[in-house]
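Me: Here is a favour to ask of a fellow structure person. Could you put it straight underneath, so I can go through it closely?

Assistant:
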Amino acid sequence: MDSVAPIGGCEASLDLTSAIPLLFFTLFFAIFIATFVRNMRHWHKNNQAPRLTVSAAVVTKRTHHSGSSRGSGTTRYYATFEVESGDRFELMLDGYEYGLLIEGDRGRLTFQGTRFLGFERE
């Protein structure tokens, strides 16, 4: 039997070890861009929303800690508010504002979209 020589006189080889770093870089870059675009859309949507001040009550508070259990990581603070119509929604706020709120507080909530701007007790 005659052996068939590859076209062009050389064999094509697939070297996966050199392709893996490029694949990881491409994946990382794509995730970074997608996250950036999502965050910019969220920021723009909040900026387009009207600033509202409404009567509300603090229904509940919670925290969410991500990262290491040894203290390094990120803690996010949330409060759920109930407005006069009975609708409830949760807003993220900073630790200082979180510490000032007490469940059951009533007052004037100011927010813009999903952005907490302030709460004044009545």
Q: What stands out?
A: Helices lie at 16-48, 95-100.
